[in-house]
Amino acid sequence: MTDTKTKIYLSAKELFKERGYSEVSLRDIAEHAGTTIGNLTYHFPKKEDLMLRLQEELYSTFFNFIDAEITDENAWDLLKNSISEIQEIRSTNMFYYKYIVNIHEEFPSMKTELLEFRKRLVTFYRKIFLTLKKTGIMRSDLADADYENLTTLVSHLTYSWYQVTSPYYDSEDEVELEEALVGLVRSYLVGEKQTFR
Hints:
- This protein is mostly helical.
- It has helices at residues 4-19, 26-33, 37-43, 47-66, 75-92, 94-97, 100-106, 108-135, 144-162, 177-186.
- The model is unreliable at 165-170 (pLDDT under 50).
């Protein structure tokens, strides 16, 4: 049997997905969870607390990649899998990412968590790119500074894509984030790895 706190959280997440974050009140969540507003606010005093839990869940999913030890043997798989995971997390949690800027303006503590996450993400990709350069999977004729720039581009592209601010959303032929990241990284790869398989 699901405990009350978990039931409230899952109800909030479901309603956010269905209606969007800004269209859901604490009362809506309490009704959906089959509990009282008092019980809801006992577990989650503010809407921010529900969003913080969601953000923690999203980050913890990706921390499996970020916190992995990067070796010559696993760097290539970590890169490929992390890019696929970014796309999956974004696709299944659009209600969060679509309004990420507004949410972070409303809840500054969430913005602090986001900035910390982004630092970890940048460190992760920097290590991967430099490891892949060392192993010959990525171009060795480029300076480390070029890989620093690539890391920055991947970070900024991912963040802006999450906000749905990319120009690729202005057309019927929407480009997926994963496809854009692969395209960006591909020119740094050597030989058969350029197929990104």
